[in-house]
Fold each of these.
Amino acid sequence: MARIGVFVCHCGENIGRTVDCARVAEELGKLPGVAHAIDYKYMCSDPGQALIKQAIAEKKLTGVVVAACSPHMHEKTFRRACGSAGLNPFLCEMANVREHCSWIHEDRDAATDKAVDLARFIVEKVKRNVPLETIRIPVTKRALVIGGGIAGIQAALDLADGGAEVILVEKEPSIGGHMSQLSETFPTLDCSQCILTPRMVEVYQHPNIKLMAYSEVAEVGGYIGNFDVKIRQKARYVDAANCNGCGACQKACIVRKVPSEFDEKLGKRTAIYVPFPQAVPNIPVIDRASCAYFKAKAKGVKKDACGKCKEACSKGAIDYEQADTFVTEKVGAIVVATGYTLYSIGKDQPEGLRGYGEYGYGTIPDVIDGLQFERLASASGPTAGKILRPSDGKEPKRIVFLQCVGSRDPAKGIEYCSKICCMYVAKHTMLYRHKVHDGQATVFYMDIRANGKGYDEFVRRAIEEDGARYVRGRVSRMYRDGETIKVQGFDTLSGEPVVIDADMVVLATAIRPQPGIEQLAQKLSASYDAHGFFNEAHPKLRPVETNTAGVYLAGACQAPRDIPDSVAMASAAAAKILGLFSKAELEREPTVAKVDAALCAGCFHCERVCPYGAITRIEVRDRKGNLVKIVAEVNPGVCQGCGTCQATCPSKSVELQGFTDEQIWSEINALLA
Amino acid sequence: MKELQELARTLLSSGTVGVVIGWEEGPRGARPAFITDAADSSRLIFDHRCTHNLATYLSPRRPHMARLGKAAIVVKGCDARAVAGLLRETQVKREDVVIIGVRCGGVAADPAGAKPLTAETVAERCPGCTAREPHLADHVVGEAQPEPPGAPTRDARIAELDAMSAPKRWAFWQAEFARCIRCNACREVCPMCFCERCVGDKTEPQWLESSPHPRGNFAWHVTRALHQAGRCVDCGECQRACPADIPLGLLNRKIAGIVADRFDYRATDDPTVPAPIGAFSMSDRQEFIL
Ligand SMILES: Cc1cc2nc3c(=O)[nH]c(=O)nc-3n(C[C@H](O)[C@H](O)[C@H](O)COP(=O)(O)OP(=O)(O)OC[C@H]3O[C@@H](n4cnc5c(N)ncnc54)[C@H](O)[C@@H]3O)c2cc1C
Ligand code: SF4
Ligand code: SF4
Ligand code: SF4
Ligand code: SF4
Ligand code: SF4
């Protein structure tokens, strides 16, 4: 026979004001199987908890129901109290008579009746609870960081400094991400490369970091503490072990006019290349698509295919036969730091987005985007830091900057604010004035969002000291008139239409997630929003975690982020992971699914629907070792307790522990009775 | 017929299989046959009375079948879809069964009927059937057959039911289900009802009342129909087996129509096409999520 204890809490006045707690305790005390029922001012206080512990000992309770606030608040508290009194913590449950009752009702009698009902059905559930054991799983103290931008670099360094081993996977030939392309950075105007490259080198030299550039994550298996990650190392056609980074191959390369990705197509590179001089690792790759050797081979030319780089390399490091290789690494946690890409205004757009026909779909010369301007302004860029327009190399005397191109424009498919553009546009106007003293910058803006430390002052400086002219309004049309670009807009402050002549136009285009990031998210079982940004587990309280345990977020892959934000997220993710790694074993709630192997028919509908890949197949054999059947099994380390399998299984052969059909059924029955 | 018998003989005498599941002449028309001795192969028949879907005997939950060894099974095109279902849902391994397809010109609703196949005697599912040529087969025997007689009737009846007001439709099904005696014949004969323990037999909690009572009857039929959504192969066996003449085929067909409309899935003998229950496609309509 069950001996349930019911503890009704007043929560000070919070519950007691609307619910007659004494009556709730009295009515619950009359139920069969309830051995003890009392009310108290603050159940969660030390004396309150003492009452529970004392009753467990004295009345030999087999279960505890605390009718109080939300289990989110205090379930742990009360379960711990029960545990310390020798009762299995999972025999304790809460009835929420605050959020579900006192806070939302006024009529004292009716609220009290409802509180009785709420507690009553939990009593029925607890009668059917069984002791559960906390799940303990071992932790591999190595982390994987995906993406080597500033966010990934920071996360890797913090983790490595904290004593964890790190594998940093970067898809491009070099780490550095977008920050390596920037000239100077707001709000301090310090040189981006100067603060970034020391960190890149540190990553390269850190004994705890294994850098895998030019690599991608192919598969992810396992679960928190125990991921198995298969990584594809793309063929560089250069043997990294022999290459000393001398650069002779690049000098010898006959293909010299490939548009440079790093210079945003404003500069050229060779077919064998390192993206930029400070690249880490400083090992070139051959871009197969433009290499003369590979092109000739593809055409079937047997002899006399180029081979100039191979001849030039004194180390014999060029290897045209190199193939992609795969390695599998075990890690305990994963940081996603895949960053962003820029929206472009062209006609061809991914699904859901639209280009800007009114701005000529990107066909007007000298209309460039923010990253291109960064390259023009950068001392290491294609113009050696001179602001020269791409079409004819002349110095533009009038530049118009457009904010919110794509962003905050539901008609183009992006309704969110890209957050960083207000700031970098202000920066661009300053860099422009510092380099072209008689140049006039005009900025079209919707409103200025400069809400960081020193940010508003920065924008003010652009306007007040560096003479940027800010026009509030949007540009409705842009067209070419000889060498001039006519920018036609509306000044909403004066209420006048305006047409501004420009020599060059810089578009602050929207920040978008990396293309194809959905596939990576699916490999990680992590969720993403309608735009493809990774979802955080909770927007306020768990901003760097995902809903998949063990997978964390840093930087612009989660939402548009500037460098300070990205770095803060990276350090936060590292701190979370170091916390995880500080324990020998992980503790998980045992409310996970469990298959009844005797009943399972092995149809594997559950396997197909499980969003976390928690279902595996196992063989059931008889005593002689003959195969009887193959059934489903839940990996408790992976299962997140979502219950999808339970809902799907036709024969109800898999159930969530702590939320079995029988428990739910008895709750419903109690309410209907 | 000779071709079928010869094939069975070879399969049995060579030891390729331990049993050939087919049809034979019985006291009341055609009936399932389990031939284990090559000499008995001449008992096998195939004609328009062979309406039974024999795939149900492949279910691993039939230990008396397992004892007979590896099976060869004779399937009409529609039955092959059930074999595909069993393969898809990992009940049977492809290498563990030899599939003998027969070309079908329609079957009678009643296997006992000695009468010729006409628009009156043909099974509901046959007119307009597009599955008459078996694809999922190791051997296909027999000549190509003429189209089954008659015109499809079920969709017109479904349209009639759809046109009814909800209370009238409810009353219609209540009256039909009221006759159910809960014998479970529909489930036992169904090749896709292969669960180890049917939810209908579950106690603690008993989700479905098991006595013949309107409430439990309704719950049972709705549950079974939903469990067959996207899995039912439209073999008509449940309806044929029902001693109370409940038009279960209408219910299954209605749901199959919804599944086809929403998930672009139709019963198929291609086991690699995933059943919609576990398949997610970006084009699935999900307006209910918002
Ligand atoms: C024009 C412009 C000017 C800016 N100026 C400033 C400024 O002055 N100050 C400031 O604070 N911020 C500035 N920013 C913002 C700054 O660029 C970002 O805050 C920062 O780069 C975000 O870093 P990240 O590491 O999150 O992303 P990224 O820099 O985008 O790095 C992501 C990295 O991940 C790699 N990657 C992507 N997908 C994969 C994959 N599947 N597998 C492996 N690797 C992958 C990428 O190759 C890349 O190296 C500016 C942005 C723009 C567009
Ligand atoms: S859905 Fe149910 S019966 Fe099918 S494999 Fe999973 S647990 Fe077993
Ligand atoms: S409850 Fe079931 S579906 Fe959900 S994660 Fe666990 S095993 Fe997968
Ligand atoms: S529900 Fe009926 S028609 Fe469908 S597969 Fe089962 S027996 Fe055949
Ligand atoms: S009705 Fe459902 S639970 Fe019962 S045997 Fe058929 S599929 Fe399985
Ligand atoms: S066969 Fe007919 S009577 Fe028997 S359970 Fe099924 S529907 Fe009811």
Amino acid sequence: MPIEVLMPALSPTMTEGNLAKWHKAEGDSVTSGDVLAEIETDKATMEVEAVDEGTMGKILVSEGTEAVAVNTPIALLLGEDEDKGALDGYEAKGVGGGSTDKDKAEPKDDKGDKEEKQAKDESTSEQKAPDGFAKPEAADPGPEPDYDGETHEITIREALRDAMAEEMRADDRVFLMGEEVAEYQGAYKVSQGLLDEFGPKRVIDTPITEHGFAGLGVGASMAGLRPIVEFMTWNFAMQAIDHIINSAAKTLYMAGGELGSPIVFRGPNGAASRVAAQHSQCYASWYAHCPGLKVVAPWSGMDAKGLLKAAIRDPNPIVVLEHEMLYGTKFEAPTDPDFVLPIGKAKIERKGSDVTITAFSRMVDVALAAAEELASDGIEAEVINLRTLRPLDTATIIDSVKKTNRIVTVEEGWPYAGIGSEIASVMMEAAFDWLDAPVTRVCGEDVPMPYAANLEALALPTPERVAKAVRSVSYAD
Amino acid sequence: MAGKSKSGGKSASSGSKSKSSGAKSGKTGAKPSKDDLLQYYRDMLQIRRFEEKAGQLYGMGLIGGFCHLYIGQEAVVIGMQSCLEDGDSVITTYRDHGHMLATGMDPKGVMAELTGRIDGYSKGKGGSMHMFSKDKGFYGGHGIVGANVPLGTGLAFAHKYREDGGVCLTYFGDGAANQGQVYEAFNMAALWDLPVVYVIENNKYGMGTSVARSSATTDLHKRGAAHGIDGQKIDGMNVLKVREAGIEAVAYAREKGPIILEMETYRYRGHSMSDPAKYRSKEEVSKMRDERDPIVQLRDIILKEKGIDEDGLKEIDKEVREIINAAAEFAQESPEPDPSELYTDILIEA
Ligand SMILES: Cc1ncc(C[n+]2csc(CCOP(=O)(O)OP(=O)(O)O)c2C)c(N)n1
Ligand SMILES: [Mg+2]
């Protein structure tokens, strides 16, 4: 049987083209790689090369023909052992089957077909998996285990260090790398003592080369190690964000599950003090935006230890957003090395019936302070420490709002497309009927962080601003 | 850094063969046997036929999006792969079909990924540019120019951390050689003596921009000099020369640290399927094809020096063609991924 040469698509968008020129005549011999013809597309003239060997049997579409549809047979090639007789009565069929985008785009007016498709679509939306934000029940890993073991009072810095040390003791695939993490003991002294205990093989000072060492860490994780990559601050990780998103977060999906990136990226995030715009920014919504990542933002000692340990054990790429201004704060933290917190679960830090306030990281302090102030006015606020930003524990927020009927979100980051915007959307989608007032956001001001002390203070959420927002949604001002 | 050569010359020439053994004939032995040559011929031909078929399926609308063919560059990857041991790792860019076949990945699974089907290596979710096989030591398949260089350096870091004696081959293009992260990776690789061979596939162009128009200095093998990494320029159209240099470089990387091989090579087709390649002359392309084609060169050696006749090679041609046709058929028959696959493989269940 002769081999059909088809009008090729030479770009992702081409549907037809002109047959500008034949380079082979009937009877010519053809080997793989030979140029058969020239085709003009909307963009350019391209050559069509032979894939099969044989003799040019018959030209079906002559030179100069315009608007030849893709996949139209344009010539017949005779195989090595065939003679011209094989062409007699042969009818070119063109391409059969093959689902091209074009097929899909074409509306099918067969009704039965459509219904079947609809049914299919519905069944798939039900399978919608783990961390779709709009699915409140999706992000529920079960209740937080009540920890009633021993605790001790330590700083957040120490809690983070202990989390790493415990996990490094338990798993020799875990190592820490970053700028000044080893001999200097951490730019913010978070890795104090780790070099002494684990040595330079596992506590590694890197050059100042965020893009490079983030990529190196992701590569090591693909090979099965469990890197903890410390960014001196998250501001500098903008140089590395390509590896965090493109290399770490997307690989498992692109690999169909064959290979992932079990890695922790951590460091201080958000507003530091008097360091101006380039060193003071919250990246929560940047990373929470991306499927394939988990994002946690600890506030307390329990958070710091439990979430970082969970992150190190987790087989996925995790972003841990710490806060410089909390490093020195003391909290009670569990001493039990088996203690971890579930990723994807918020914590109600203060119970209340009148309004829900969500916050994370340092803003939990601000929310709690606002709640105290409001309590003296007789407004009882429920303060939710989000803990995880992706997957967001929407169930806890919704349950709370069903009780309080109003919600104020607090974050240091900018309002535009922030975490508060996301929560507002979730409320619209899942708690609309329970809301008695518009969802209200208290955010960092929509400006680069100023240096001057008074301006800096004005740029950030304060307990007063939160309390004001709460009074407003309570119609109490 | 102790143990790193600062001499400008070739430093991979010491008799260092930590892992070479007769265990797997033809892998690390210095002189390839007749069977080895036939194997290289077959493997290069398989890539060529695979790519031609992919081009054809693309033309039929069965493959979509970006599809970067490796035709012309086959000697690089086949020569280098012949220098590796089990447990070594390979990482490359989006021009990756040849590398996957060279590591032993199944043409059926690769082709089915190109057609976006469930039996593809990534269940149809990665496509031409993104496939992986832990089993074969192949770590992708990366679409961001330059990004696979730190990633490969990280694979080498893992070899060293685990002390498993492995080496990572990190392939990238002449265009990628101008990315900053390449030099960040070079610095760390040299600083920590990581077992990595950087294979720069200099095919003369990054898309439509020639090396001379993109690079202030065009001797890409010297780009490691600032970090004390030696490099060599190799005729990448000659599989035997690639192999010869590869054996030394891999042994050097395994024992001492990073090294660069710049492969002079050429891609016959456009950058991707929709590139009419107007930035170079027809004569330039046909001269390469006619005078330096890697498959023809090896074929001539086999015919002239190894006592094999045309019929002997025809058998191989036929076998390869059958494999590729079977792969193409498989790739069209395999179903599209179930819609539920849209939501899988985003996170691993902890
Ligand atoms: C960071 C980045 N910039 C631009 C591109 C678009 N792009 C894809 S391939 C390519 C050319 C790369 O050339 P080279 O490194 O020589 O590799 P070759 O394609 O020749 O194999 C460009 C610019 C990209 N994928 N990633
Ligand atoms: Mg190139």
